[in-house]
Amino acid sequence: MDFNPKMKHNAVRKTVRRFAESELGPIAHDIDRDARFPLEVIEKMRPLNFFGLQLPKKYGGAELDTTSYAITIEEISRVCAGVGLCVTVHNSVGAFPIERFGTPGQKERFLPHLASGEYIGAFCLTEANAGSDAGGVETTAVRDGDEYVINGTKIFVTNGGVCGTALIFAVTDPENLRNAASVFVVEKGTPGFSVGEIEDLCGMRSNPVSSLFFEDCRVPADNLLGRLGDGLKIGLIALDTGRIGIAAQALGIAQAAFEASVKYSKERQQFRKPLSSFQTIQNYLADMATEIDAARLLLYRACALKDAAKPFSAEAAMAKLYCSTIASRITNLAVQIHGGYGYSKEYDVERYFRDAKVTEIYEGTSEVQRMVISRAVLSKLT
Amino acid sequence: MINLVVCIKQVPMVSELPWDAHTGTLKRELAEGMMNPACGHALEAALQIKEKHGAHITAVTMGPPMAEEVLREAIALGADRGILLTDPRMAGADTFVTSYILARAIEKICPNFDLIFCGCQTSDSETAQVGPQLSEELDIPGAANVEKLDLTGRSLRIQRLSDNFLETLEFDLPGLITLTTQHYEPRHVSLSGMQQAFEFGEIVTLTAADLGLDPEFKSAKNSPTRILDVFSPVAQNKNIVMKGAPKKIVEQLFLKFDDKIGGAIGKDLKEKT
Amino acid sequence: MMDAERNIWVFGDYRNYFQNRVTLQLLSRAADLAPKINARVGAVILGSHINEYVNEYIAHGAQKVYLIDHPSLARYSIETYTTLIEGLARKYLPDIVLVGATSFGRELAPRLAKRLDTGLTADCIRLDINADGLLEQTAPSFGGNLLARIVTPVSRPQMATVRPGSFQEIPHDSSRQGMVICEPMPKKLPKERMRLINYERKPPRGQRIEEARVVVCGGRGMGSKNKFRKLYELAQLLGGEVGATRPVVYSGWADPEALVGQAGKQIKPQVLFSFGISGAIQHTAGFNNAGLVIAVNKNPNATMMKIADVAIVADANQFCSSLIKELKKRIRN
Asked: Which helix (H) or strand (E) holds C8?
């Protein structure tokens, strides 16, 4: 077992860290406060392949391994989780399903635009009455000649406000319980497709999370991804990959909160001693460090399995569950260590605290991750 | 097509300097390395020449095997190949010996070089000596602290700030320049560039023997300077307390610290007139 | 031909004479060190019509001045200067050569060391003679976070560049005597490869507070927004920038850009003035790497007054006015 990071992984980490610290660092606080999606930075990320992390080179992607992908998301999120969210969702559930399930023609049509970041990808499963319960999807797609007509509303769509393509889960065969839903690629500008208000959320405020509306939205039949009724299958596979990204994102937030806590506890004096000289604070920091390390090892193991083309679904769920759990705990503790200043918007830890919470919720809540993990545990014969 | 050589040093990240508080020493081997900032500007200046005129760029570094990382980074940014000078016998070099080894390597691997780029100084030892000493070793014209450059044919015109004088100088290639961090802000590394650099990048590793150095040669032994020890400066907080009439205190202040406070005044005065 | 006694040489770097006192500071330090190794202090000076500097250097402690005075040396030139000083050093074999760490000095010294096959320590802040009679050079690294003590045990001369401001100059004394050794300009010199195209004085560029040499920080103790404005005048006179604490920024006395501390800028000026600042860690963590820290506060027990190098017990606003007045007077003279 090799626990030494490869030179390439170190290099990727430093590269992304430098980019994030120099380009996102100065604005991370403001774009959170103003709930502003920083298009000017996204513009700079495009030629650097942040939007084609693992896509094949022939479409303009970087063809990175999954560990490099996770490190990239971790490092962006360490500085700005909202933009980290944009990048991971785009790459994992926005673009990857097209690469995995698309026809050669679909790949030619969509992947170059996605890899270059000209199109930002979104993934729309959640509805008012459906989330991890994909069976509750009420959006419909009805065949009409060479087209499908889509009707319905998707909510809490990450990147929704700026997406160039959206993967839409819609019911195509209401009678078929298992294979009711199919996935369609809908491009922006398609008549009948519109974007709702940007959500006013607790965290991840720089991401334009919004609702998407489909009113008699006609897409060519050729935009069906995979086969008719493949919705659930595509969704599950996409979400396995998506979990790695969200785990990496949570880890990045936790790392940022930890670093801020170490720095602050060395500088802040109470009772004429730095905070770091108190055993309680030392214990907090030791626990944080241990949890972050454990989380990182779990995550990189899931990445290594995926790159070795081995099953990684349960391992990705474990990584996502653990990374998001400790992110919440560590950001909470970071606020505690900072005391009153930690509760102030002047310091970054309160942003980490708000950003961390949702990692326990989206792309499968912690409860759903436990479902996935327990299924794997209980699926053994004896 | 002209041949450019960029000398790059991998330096420890200051933010991550592992410091042993008990022994008061730096655990340098534990620190993550990065490309020295000024070397990044030097590379950027070379890349811009490559884009404008076409050029072949060789990136050279001397250091432990892990210094390969900065060469991969240079290739990811657009350098054509990397030369890694690594050998236990090269360890412990001061600037005198570093410039000697670099010169031998450049003569061997890139004898028909046209222009050598160095960072004006490193963020670790901060000597600013390797560039000027390398130009002496190779007996070529050299200019330190270059801010802007303009290549026309084989004539290089440079601009720099030297002790508050703005100088424009010109020389014919081959030559050497060291770059400040004032202009040529390094571009960001693209992730596909990084992937390609690790997959296909050409790195040539050379030892002291490969360079034909004397079999007895050892950097630590051949360096004319010796480091006795390295320590963390103790806070020299004298905490002088001054009281009384402001006018009197101001006088005292100038009496004691004129070199620190007064220097600035003179400068301000001179340059306004 | 070796001198009967040993010599410590100081490179006479007279460009920007009125601002650049490093040569005088080095002459002073060399005079301190010389008796320990039985040496004399020599200044080396190249140029055209530079007699006034010869006299200055003697008045500031040089016992000998090695002089090459020639019209072609009217302007500093790295190649010719290196060659000429190399020639002088080979002739007189000085034991130690000290060069001010100016831009020119830091380009000249490494070339010279290379030609003379000897070691060089960069940007020293302390120089001593150790028990073995060696020049012990203390040089900062990692942005001043570390100091290294360095010697050149075997090769000669021992060479160092020295950071301006590291030593106090000896006061000017025109009664001092010194020997002037006039050296002829060599008949044949290598052709200059570097062509000087243009040469002009450059006004200081607009600087960022993070890079400013002098920073004047103010806190609520300045009294009011109007009074706080004086700090800008003071900073201008000192060629520096203005920094501020959190309460001051929140009160709108200063731009958020000026905020120094954990939530703001990290600064590392050579001189930091602190006016009416109590010294909360949120602020003081912003200047861990500052040089001389001068605090002004009515309350001698304020944290800021304890951590300062110089603590001035006075009303910040009043003291600021006195300082401005004094500076203006000095500039007029």
From this structure: strand C6-11
Q: Quick check: A341 contacting C, CB < 8 Å?
A: yes
Contact call for residues C237 and C330 (beta carbons, < 8 A): no
Give the Cα separation of A316 and A373 in Å (integer).
Answer: 9
Backbone angles phi, psi at B48, to 5 degrees: -70, -35
The CA-atom distances, in angstroms, between C155 and each of A243, B64, B187, B226 are: 63, 27, 43, 11
Q: If contacts are CB pairs under 8 Å, which of residues 249-308 in chain C contact chain A?
A: 262-263, 281-282, 285
Task: Find all residues with CB under 8 Å of A94, minimum gap 6, and list them.
Answer: A114, A120, A121, A122, A123, A159, A163, A165, A167
Token couple for A335: 């606020």
| Spatial separation of the C-alpha atoms in residues A163 and A101, rounded to whole Å | 20
Binary contact (B190, A49; C-beta < 8 A): yes
Place of tokens 């012990």: C136
- How far is it, in rounded angstroms, from Cα C57 to Cα C179? 11
pLDDT in tens, A108-120: 999 999 999 999 9
Question: In terms of Cα–Cα distance, which of B126, B11, B124, B128 is closest to B69?
Answer: B11
Length of chain A measured in residues: 382
pLDDT category at B23 given cuts 50, 70, 90 is: low
pLDDT-based confidence at residue B272 (cuts at 50, 70, 90): very low
CB of A264 within 8 Å of any CB in chain C?
A: yes
Q: In this predicted structure, what is the pLDDT of residue B266? A: 43
Confirm whether pTM is higher than 0.80. Answer: yes
Residues from chain A that touch B189, judged by Cβ atoms under 8 A, are 15, 19, 48
- DSSP assignment of C201-244: E-PPPP--GGG-SEEEEE-GGG-SHHHHTHHHHHHHHTT-EEEE
Comparing CA positions, the residue from A269, B133, B100 lying closest to residue C306 is A269
Average pLDDT score over chain C = 89
Q: How many CB atoms lie within 10 A of CB C174?
A: 8
Measured between beta carbons, the chain C residues lying within 8 angstroms of B167 are 196, 198-199
Which positions in chain A touch C282 (Cβ < 8 Å)?
341
| Residue with the two structure tokens 């034991």 | C95
Q: Which of B14, B137, B261 sits opposite C114 (nearest CB)?
A: B137
Q: Do B101 and B93 meet the contact criterion of CB atoms below 8 Å apart? A: yes
More confident residue, B75 or B232: B75
